[in-house]
Amino acid sequence: MNDKYFLTILATSGFGVFFTSIFGEWNNDVIALVILMAIDYITGLVVAGMFRKSKKSKNGGLSSSAALKGIAKKVCELMLVAAAFQSEMLLHVDYLRIAVIWGLCGAEIISIMENADDMDILPESVKKVLGRVTKTLNKDEKEENKDHDDQDGHDQ
What we know:
The protein is mostly helical. It has helices spanning 3-23, 28-51, 64-91, 96-118, 124-154.
């Protein structure tokens, strides 16, 4: 057997074992998350680079700082999946990782839809639904912050 071929197989196998031990099984849920992350990142680049409508830069165009933050956020999302999987191993449960993956997939889909809206390619019906979803999410977030602020006031 060719040494280069053997080393390639060994390295690929090693990466697979490492990945599985950190993130869990490479299944359709993980594949979907990675694909959605890539679509979100690419559509964000298109919004900034071609349409100059990015909300993440001062002039709406491409920004290396914003791109780096986007990559860092994606890495942190994968770290959340790893943390959930490791927590499953510790607690002997099997639902934390999938809950994190589905939540992250939902957030990626919303972000992709927002990018599509910035490109003016989102159908009006989807735009309405997206508006309701983001309004509900923002409302829930405000209520959580208000509850948190109320609790902080009682501690003084």
